[in-house]
């Protein structure tokens, strides 16, 4: 619908967005989300955890978010804020970067007859538990000031949501914490908050981040050395999570050891 607006209507909408930007305001009428629960494949429909919540928000609101997000990302990238191993929703980066890096680490370990042990993490309700004040604090420390910071503060506060099942709507609930599901700005703001996690990972440990998906690995001839180094890293990451309001999901955290015999079998199967 917005794409079919006449040039005059587009100009009026742009003027309205500029007024909102000058006032550093995100209207409350755009802060209502309808949550549609979708059943995950092969899951028990009687369990609430078997559903993935999809948030439907205002199209006008998301249109207004896009230029704000573009400005914010441009500033953060120019200042070199994002960690070099964060590839989530960044221009010119993708999951392929991490796959190539991980494969290289595994192959190098095989060449040196080492074990390569990897741990893959999942953050529990990552977007819903993100500390809003922490986001604003981190943005300020990175040099975000003025109208941009006030506009993001306005965007983060006052969100409400309703759950919709068919034509039935639940009561209205206030979202007291986290970043809005389905928001254009939400991914960038979450990446800002999780950015400091990389600082607690020792330089001897390799790591990758794709928004809220994390992976660490360590290679050594001694398997016990791998276990010890990774456990120390996990302890530091858990401490960071406690300090920043996050929690890792033990059920979705997986440790995978690689060594040459298994790797050769896997390569033969793949080819």
TrEMBL record:
Domain Reverse transcriptase: 19-271
Domain of life (superkingdom): Eukaryota
InterPro entries tied to this protein: DNA/RNA_pol_sf, RT_dom
CDD domains cross-referenced by the UniProt entry: RT_nLTR_like
Gene Ontology terms: biological process: DNA biosynthetic process
Short name of any one Pfam family annotated for the protein: RVT_1
Coiled-coil segments on the chain, per record: none
Name of the featured protein: Putative tick transposon
Organism: Ixodes ricinus
């Amino acid at each position: 619908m917005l794409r079919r607006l006449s040039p005059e209507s587009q100009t009026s909408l742009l003027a309205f967005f500029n007024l909102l930007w000058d006032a550093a305001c995100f209207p409350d009428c755009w802060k209502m989300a309808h949550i549609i629960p979708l059943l995950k494949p092969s899951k028990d429909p009687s369990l609430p955890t078997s559903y993935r919540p999809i948030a439907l928000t205002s199209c006008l609101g998301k249109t207004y978010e896009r230029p704000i997000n573009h400005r914010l990302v441009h500033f953060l990238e120019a200042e070199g804020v994002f960690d070099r191993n964060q590839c989530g929703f960044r221009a010119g980066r993708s999951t392929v970067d991490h796959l190539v890096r991980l494969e290289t680490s595994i192959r190098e370990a095989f060449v040196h007859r080492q074990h390569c042990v990897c741990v893959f993490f999942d953050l529990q309700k990552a977007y819903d538990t993100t500390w809003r004040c922490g986001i604003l604090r981190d943005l300020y420390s990175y040099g975000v000031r003025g109208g941009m910071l006030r506009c993001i503060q306005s965007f983060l506060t006052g969100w409400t949501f309703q759950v919709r099942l068919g034509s039935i709507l639940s009561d209205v609930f206030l979202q007291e914490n986290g970043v809005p599901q389905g928001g254009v700005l939400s991914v960038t703001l979450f990446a800002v908050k999780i950015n400091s996690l990389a600082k607690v990972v020792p330089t001897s440990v390799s790591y990758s981040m794709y928004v809220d998906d994390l992976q660490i690995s360590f290679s050594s001839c001694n398997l016990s050395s791998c276990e010890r180094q990774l456990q120390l890293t996990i302890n530091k990451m858990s401490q960071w999570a406690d300090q920043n309001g996050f929690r890792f999901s033990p059920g979705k955290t997986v440790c995978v050891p690689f060594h040459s015999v298994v790797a050769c079998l896997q390569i033969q199967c793949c080819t």
